[in-house]
Amino acid sequence: MTTRDTAWPAGTPCWVDLAVPDLPAATDFYGAVLGWDFVDTGEEFGHYTLAQVGGRSAAAIAPVQPGQPAGSTVYLASDDVDATAELVTEHGGTVAVAPFDVPGMGRMAVAFDAAGGAFGIWQAGGMIGAEIYNEPGSLVWEDARLTDPAAGQAFYAAVFGHTFGAVPGAPDDYATFAVDGEIAGGMGGMMGAPEGTPSHWLPYFMVSDVDAAMAAVGSGGGAVVSEAVDTPFGRMGVAADPFGATFALHGGMPE
Question: Which intervals hold domain VOC (predicted)?
Fold first, then answer.
């Protein structure tokens, strides 16, 4: 099992949480699709509910706050959230939620990049973010799908030090991004999203059987956005939960 117990390197996607209008329905849905177990952190933390695999936190689900749309937030690690928030504004982004402490857990902020994509910033304290990855039920990849990928890449390079590499066979505007030379995700255009779709980060969750997980999406009240297909990087498809939040399902790299 691929696990982690120390803080993620700055600039690395380290966590994802999902804001939903119906927490019991969401846990039923994601439990069936991704095999998650759940731990409610209680009223003090607004019933922020940890999604776990083998007793290790993989993601979280929480009730939407007033004025907040349903959807997912991908968080990038930072050694200093306040300094990162300053860089966000210096390089064409917007800080939507100013840095604040999550008691006993860490410090966070929420921002928009220069292409309008929302993301979180996480400075680890008692919680590092994802404690399991590249395993069924956990994050295996993340894409930033941006209306202006050139502006987005310049932004993330300046704020997080990301470097970029071409992907043979991918669209010209798509690249992997790396943190300290380690590939950490992808960044590019909207990849066929319906016109009017805003810039966004798309989390990919690994599953042992993509087709079975896609079937569970449909039977659980979600929708298939892109049918599962085989790619050089494994079998994958895109789905939406019953509240409209999109996510990808990935079968892992082919052997």
Answer: 12-124
